[in-house]
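Retro notes, item 3 of 5
We never archived the inputs for the SAJ complex last cycle. Fixing that now. Sequence and ligand:
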Amino acid sequence: MNRFSRISVIGMGYIGLPTSAVFADNGVDVIGVDVNPSAVDSINRGEPHIVEPELDVLLRKVVQAGKLRATMTPEPADAFILAVPTPFRGDHEPDLSYIEAAAKAIAPVLEKGNLVILESTSPIGTSEQLSRWLAAHRADLTFPHQAGELSDIRIAHCPERVLPGQILREVVQNDRIIGGLTRKCAQAATALYRIFVKGQIHLTNARTAEMAKLTENAFRDVNIAFANELSLICDKLRINVWELIRLANQHPRVNILNPGPGVGGHCIAVDPWFIVAADRENSRLIRTAREVNDAKPHFVVEKVRAHAAKLKEPVIACLGLSYKANVDDLRESPALDIVAELARQKVGEILVVEPHINALPKDLAELGLALADFDQATEKANILVLLVDHASFLTVDHDVVKDKIVVDTRGAW
Ligand code: SAJ
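Structure as it came back at the time:
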């Protein structure tokens, strides 16, 4: 018999909501907890408050079937999954306040035999810290850092590794790493994820699981930084970087990623800093990769500025604001920085196109910018800056583009 008939997911964001829907679709009663009342209302109507392919259909199904319900106050459950944000503060120091708040919120409803999973990407040692935070609120229960295998509560880190845009497929198909604070903790977590995970499940300790997740995203960041650095070098040497990479990638052991306007999103632009914060002395390459990627938006701004300086009345269409193609997520998006900088520097009239959102973020609106339609913006502008390779941008009419200055940061056109 499945020992997890009722679970609770804390944090109904890009990871928590799809994970909840998939558990619910596999017969588990899921209570989704979030501090945002409008997200809770929206979920209870069966409507996702985020954009992710196919999530709307699945959510409607599980909410109508009564398998998933959202609330602002935690309730008792067999297992709790924490999927809250782990951003960084001022000097790229990890901010664990959301995890601490989630621990405080679930502590009153914990019962002997419960399993607590940390899914949020976390700096090394966070799972142990979670155990201490929970213990501080529940002196009547024992936790793994105190009682080892005999603990009343089991705790494991099971980092999410899904790719936004493909979450519902990857959450089921990807392998999972499970790091238990003890062996029994890892085994309990394995039983939980076996409910829907079709990929392999690899067991380890919590610290290694924490580092594995950070390592995966730092690996990607370093590789994108290599591509971005090449794009700067090629620009100076007047070589087409896209052709160069295509040719170099013909080599059987070379696989260079794509340059872009910079690296965004809540993961790759953030997680490598957690490794740097843990060991500044030895993480020189990882830190430099972050700096290379973070500098790329400035390079794009300078390119556009140089083109605009040659025109009497520059009208610049900035195409795409999200951090990557076909998503609505603007977090850490380099396109946002580029548009804001162009506006602040008054480089010309700016038309912003982003088909996945209905309103501009506050700081862009405050700069006097407004959303524009793709066809009208590309028609009116004399400079086109492709910032995101959304599918809907790729079918652009070449007659419209051919007489314009094009800054294609994605190599998509
Ligand atoms: N990017 C490039 N060039 C590339 C690939 C990506 O400039 O060749 C840019 C994207 O445009 C975007 C950023 O990098 O701005 C990150 O995009 P991504 O698609 O590489 O990754 P994310 O942030 O959407 O998801 C990553 C994934 N991690 C890895 O592939 C190692 C995903 O599997 C993780 O689950 C996710 O981070 C996470 O939540 O940590």
